[in-house]
Write a structure and sequence with these properties.
- This protein has 185 residues and is mainly beta.
- It is built from two helices and nine strands, in the order E-E-E-H-E-E-E-E-E-E-H.
Length: 185
């Protein structure tokens, strides 16, 4: 794993068509930082650190030489996460899971404006359409990539229960736990 430091993968040492496999979890400092950031953004009104959440990454990375795009890297794998968040109606703690398949490529930043990449940031490689990301200055920023895909996958409106009654707008009483004189029947 000497090729990676703080989520930056040094690409110069990769051999063509050789698959490098990675398995990362919250024991890796930058992965743990992403989980902590996720929970801090998802927990409202409480100053609670994460307790038993997880973030696991398993992926293969392969360097190939493309006739038009030069050196690029194919990433195939999965991301799984379990995190705590606040219900948007009553602020009670609830848990969420994310399971994602990761299938993308990393191209040199020289190709960011290339016509080979469609308007949706996708490219056709090895008989499938994959999302294109970019590496700069000899480093592939895995932390930035994982941050992006993780936060896009987050449920923006988490509910602890689909029948959550929420909080009273007048006094803040949790209407799931007790009645309130401000709420009309």
């Amino acid at each position: 794993m000497e090729k990676m430091a703080n989520g930056l993968i040094k690409i110069s040492s990769f051999l063509y068509n050789k698959v490098e496999s990675y398995s990362l979890d919250i024991k890796t400092a930058w992965v743990n930082e992403l989980l902590v950031e996720l929970e801090k953004e998802q927990i409202w009104g409480k100053d609670k650190p994460h307790t038993n959440g997880f973030l696991n990454l398993n992926f293969d990375l392969k360097k190939i030489n493309h006739p038009n795009l030069k050196d690029l890297f194919l990433l195939n794998g999965s991301l799984s996460a379990y995190y705590h968040c606040s219900c948007i109606r009553c602020l009670e703690m609830t848990d969420r899971k994310i399971n994602l398949d990761l299938n993308c490529c990393f191209l040199s930043s020289d190709f960011e404006e290339s016509e080979l990449i469609d308007d949706m940031g996708k490219i056709f490689l090895e008989n499938e359409e994959v999302e294109a990301f970019f590496f700069k200055k000899g480093h592939l920023d895995l932390k930035e990539f994982i941050h992006e895909v993780l936060f896009i996958a987050v449920d923006p409106l988490p509910l602890h229960d689909e029948n959550c009654k929420g909080l009273c707008a007048e006094c803040g009483t949790n209407l799931n736990l007790s009645e309130c004189p401000h709420v009309s029947r």
